[in-house]
Design brief:
By secondary structure, the chain is mainly α. It has one domain: Ferritin. It is built from 5 helices and no strands. Bound molecules: hydroxy diiron-OXO moiety (OFO).
């Protein structure tokens, strides 16, 4: 049974994932407008992943006997400075999401809500993967520095990065 405090915190996480979706949509649009076609495609795919993260939580809340609520989402920003600054912001955002997931895990354990604790392990693993991915991209951007040829190649590479197949959106823990 879903503990009430955990249900509320899961609904807050739904809102954070929804914000991530819109924030990445805004970033993809900025990249597209600034000539970074490959990176734009890559971030559009990341936005889709965030939507999936949100829906997976949403379905879980109801599956576990709670009430999933469509969230109010804060306005995403549209100004990111430079290509490098944009990816710094993505990495910082992913770290914030990881902290929120870890808080949720902590709460589930404190409330002896072992079902939610188990469900959330998928997000713990996902955040490790996402932080690692964006840290690598930030490192590559630093390596390239202001070199336009290097930036061109990096943008191209980002555009060819494969899209992960989405897991089922219900609370299937085998996902
Ligand atoms: Fe990229 O963060 Fe969702 O969970």
């Amino acid at each position: 049974m879903l503990a009430k405090k955990v249900e509320n915190a899961l609904n807050e996480q739904v809102a954070l994932e929804a914000f991530s979706f819109f924030q990445y949509l805004a970033m993809a649009s900025w990249l597209d407008n600034n000539g970074f076609e490959g990176a734009s495609k890559f971030i559009y795919n990341q936005a889709d992943e965030e939507k999936m993260h949100m829906q997976k939580l949403f379905f879980y809340i109801n599956d576990a006997g709670g009430f999933a609520k469509a969230p109010a989402v804060p306005q995403a920003s549209h100004d990111f400075g430079t290509f490098a600054e944009l990816f710094d912001k993505v990495l910082a955002h992913e770290k914030k999401v990881s902290d929120a997931i870890h808080e949720l895990v902590n709460l589930a354990l404190a409330e002896k809500d072992f079902t939610s604790f188990n469900f959330l392990q998928w997000y713990v693993a996902e955040q490790l993967e996402e932080e690692n991915l964006f840290r690598t991209i930030v490192d590559k951007i630093k390596m390239v520095g202001g070199n336009t040829d290097g930036l061109y190649m990096l943008d191209k590479d980002l555009g060819t990065m494969s899209v992960k197949p989405n897991p089922p959106l219900n609370s299937d823990l085998g996902a």
